[in-house]
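Marked as duplicate of an earlier ticket. Keeping the data here for the record.
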Amino acid sequence: MQTLKAVLLAAPWILSQIVSADGLTASRMSERDDIRAFIQTMVAKHDMDQQKLEDLFDATNLRSSIIDALDRPATSRAWYQFSPGFLSAAKVRSGVAFWREQESWLTKAKLKFGVPEEIIVAIIGIESAYGKNLGRFRTMDALTTIAFEYPRRSDYFRQELEQFLLLAQEENVDPLSLYSSYAGAMGWPQFMPSSFRNYAVDFDGDGERNIWQNPADVIGSVAYYFAKFGWQTGAPIVTPAQPGDIDLEPLLAERFELKRSLDEWQQLGITRLDQSINGDNKASLFRLESEPGKYSYWFGLQNFYIISRYNKSVHYSMAVTQLAALIRAEYLNPTPSPQVTQAAPKKLKARR
């Protein structure tokens, strides 16, 4: 009896400390001070139902595997290790196939927003393999885990969690029914919740912004996203650079800051190899490790910076740029299928 009584007395504490399958406290999260404060903010700011929010957070699981993934992003690998998975022949073939299937919507998007088909196609292919890889985490789990268990990014992800709850309310969907990447990116274009609310469009006019199942809305949303961030129609994305004998490290650290024009870079001793590009164009300098210890140098122009708004990584932005070029080349001039030749039939010897 004494043991049972002790268990019953301890039950509320035990329930509040139940651990999820991969290691972080998951149950009764509405009792945590930080989450309780977040709930109260949502109630005061957006007039949300407090009890529904408490129930929602108590049904949410924290995932330690998400924290692990954040600490070892794929884009941290060297270019020669990173790029093969994004620039494969299979990626190019699937991109061309998607372009042919969705040609009319891609053409409409280009005409309306000025973003070329191959950029839209490359983004969707890299992000979700044209809807095949939509993520295996519940979006609520992903955003809550990072917002409250990863201090380095907590401010941003609490904002995205707020946006997600508003999205679910506006779209009239159960927050626990939506799945995403480990970072909370959703649908074919892998939009964060704020991106969905700001840039997702109903491109086919059916009354829904469906980036989970409708290729037309996916295409229109990606194109609109780039257009709103300032995509320059017909402008170059990158151009090779030739550095002189100067200290490059401080300049490479600037990354996506478009502080200098190409002419100003040239005055510093770093030349663009393609002199046909207007020297007034703003650019940043970056390098790629093409093989161990060997680097190529590039200028990223305005459109390169726009691609980086999707994922702030030179590796990601260059993968999109190069995959798009490969897809366009194959779309315009398909590689001939190998001819299958049949061996001539053997002549049978006549029997005597």
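See parent ticket for discussion. The first helix runs from residue 2 to 16.
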